[in-house]
Amino acid sequence: MKKACFLCLLVCLTTATALTRKQEAAEQSRRKASLPSLKRKEEGVTRTVDEEQEKYEDEDELSDQCPEPNGYFPDGEQCDKYYDCRDGKFTVKLCPDGLVFNDFSPQHEKCDLPFGIDCTKRPELQKPQPSPHCPRMHGYFAHEDSRNCDTFYYCVEGKYNMITCPDGLVFSEKTGICNWPDEAQKKGCGSRELFNFTCPKVDDSVAATHPRYPDTEDCQYFYVCVNGEIPRRSGCKLGQAFDERTGKCDWARKIPECKDWYKDQLTDEELDALENPPPKPKPAGGGQNRRKGSRPT
User: Is residue 231 assigned to a domain?
Assistant: First the structure.
């Protein structure tokens, strides 16, 4: 009889406890819904704890975000979002605006510029935070005027530096670097638009040598016709000019048609110094063997 009463009491207590837990869970859900989103920055990475974090708190879904108990793992849809997993529990993180998560190794927390990182399967990004000349806070961005082919902006924390490509190159929005016009493939910035030059028609044997032609408006520069068809503008170093007879660069004063090219830029003394640089000083110690110690006898 006593044993039966004890079992009855245990069942009642268990039922009461279960009801209490449901009530507590409902109260916790109500409190979470009323809390504002919380954001904080730590070590240059924005940590976000909001409704998006809450929807993954069910233990049954942890395996999707944490393939391993510890590490950093990319989000399946958003390229600049990732998960910091610790003992199977995760924190949602966002890279700084303009950067994306580099998932090369779960052991490394690394946000990078998007060039060279495949985001085709997770193309979504956070909302941009633009500023003057910077569509996003971080990155390399083309000039607003599409006709300006060689100028771009380097943005850090929403502040920009304007950079100009070396002569003959174009800023590539695909790679974030300056490149040849035919490789950059920027609309309105091809070789035909940039250069007042067209590669002459040549036979296959000449085309294979990538022939060179002078820039008729600038002695220091010349054109290389890749495969005899694609012009790329290149140049000689200061004080030199392109010699059409040899197809090479030489000192301008040795080329009759370019002998006075630097007349308004450099003095004869400066040209002499470029053509005849002083010998490099010998290393200290008279060129003796600098290896420490000696071979044992």
Answer: yes
Domains in the chain: how many in total? Answer: 3
- Cα gap 243→182, rounded to integer Å: 25
pTM tops 0.85: no
Phi, psi angle pair for 248, to nearest 5°: -135, 170
**Same domain, yes or no: 185 and 234:** no
- Give a yes or no: residue 138 inside a domain: yes
Host domain of residue 102: 62-127
228 with 201, same domain: the answer is yes
Is 41 within the bounds of a domain? Answer: no
**What's the confidence (pLDDT) of residue 57?**
47
| CA separation for the pair 137, 148 (Å, rounded) | 22
Q: What's the average pLDDT block by block, 10 residues per block, for the chain (297 residues)? A: 41 38 43 35 40 45 76 95 94 96 93 93 95 96 93 96 94 93 89 87 94 95 94 94 96 96 94 91 63 52
